[in-house]
Amino acid sequence: MTISKTANLVLIPAPGMGHLAPAIELAKHLVARDPRLSITVLLIKGFVPEETVESYILSLKSNSSLLNQGIGFIDIPQIDLNSARPSFLTHMNAYQPKVKEAIEGLRSAGPLPVAGLLVDMFCTSTIDVATELGLPSYVFFTSGAGLLRLFFHLHGLGVDVAQEYDVVRSPDTLLEIPGFRNPVPVKVLPGRFLSKDGQSSTFLRLADKFRQAKGILVNTCMEIDRDLIQSMSQQDIEIPPIYPVGPILNLPTEDDHGHDDDESSGKDPITRWLDDQPPRSVVFLCFGSRGTFNDTQIKEIAVGLERSGQRFLWSLRQRPGETGVPLELDDPSKVLPEGFFERTAEKGRVIGWAPQARVLAHKAVGAFVSHCGWNSTLESFWYGVPIAAWPIYAEQQLNAFVLVKELGLATEIRIDYCQDFGINMVVKAEEVEDGINKAMKETEVKKKVKEMCDKARKALEEGGSSYESIGRFIEVVFKNLP
């Protein structure tokens, strides 16, 4: 028996694949759980142009199955901010009138009541729109519970965090933060929190918006972040209910072979090369959609890789051009040590863009040198591949701290490496070699990651912790119907 849709939840993801793709996957989970619920996604143009985002959006709009499930899309007209490089939050704030106009259009045109707004963690300025229209709002927090706990803790201190803590002069200052088992060094805090340019207060005021929401959905599960989630549920009555709903991931299908397929085999060159390697023998190096290094650091990585003797697949890209997106290298040999390709021809491959999830899913991959972005972290858990942590910017240092020091689910290359402050850090070849070998050989970490793989998958199955959390959230959505 078909159940008619009775409520429409408006989803506002942030532009950028790291936020947009998990938001769409969350929408799929929600409509699959309750046939009464439909979701309308407001698509805001990207802060930084990304070809992958544009093609992804086109694929969503042409996917009739999404519409059949009750997921629709509205394009929000792009706004010219008359600024070459506005901040991300300024960019999102400017869209409030357009968002309001779209929601009013939904209310007047459709038979379904708008149940509320589910907004990305960086789109919380639209909570003001929800309040103005008399609608409840909810937040989708696309990172882990560690960053959310940090938001609330630093905001609650009532001090100018950027002035209080100086990562350059006092990097070893320790903070006691509820939910963390160990003191947290200032040097692993996100750069935006400690920026001296005045952005830190603006950034931390996002916590004000989080507190105004009726609930916060976090892309994690109790099995990963139990202590942190419980600390927010028990110790601060001003924090809205927390719903761990993850791991929410945009995973490849079995017939998704990515770019540059070989027609004779149906497989791309990367997969064909991995097929020829022994099980769990390859270390995969990939630093996310924006992770790049200078030439000095690239050479140190190359030397460390070669010395390790491990088989490797290295996603190497050059520093961004005007769009801010890393570029493909025309000739990687120009930035690598002389003779590197010849000496490692039997051991490894250097590639450009990598189909990360598909690589991690391959049986040949035994370790993952990663920037510890949250989506990448969840993918490593999902496929049971241990991480050698090498964060670069944003909240990645904190994620790495949680993985290495709090949970014992990763080995370390350099968890305090950070490009946000302009400090000229260089990780030496010896550190790269040692970190890679530990990730490939550390049996206790491998055992823990395999256990987490099983737990994370079960969390989303019927009766699992995230499955139940999604159900509780949907109940609240219908309870709070305007």
TrEMBL record:
Protein's UniProt name: Glycosyltransferase
Keyword set includes Ubl conjugation: no
Origin species: Fallopia multiflora
Family: Belongs to the UDP-glycosyltransferase family.
Molecular function GO labels: UDP-glucosyltransferase activity
Extent of Basic and acidic residues compositional bias: 254-272
Keyword list, A-Z: Glycosyltransferase, Transferase
Enzyme Commission code(s) on record: 2.4.1.-
Stretch forming the signal peptide: none
Superkingdom as given in the UniProt entry: Eukaryota
Region (Disordered), start-end ranges: 252-272
PROSITE patterns from the UniProt entry: UDPGT
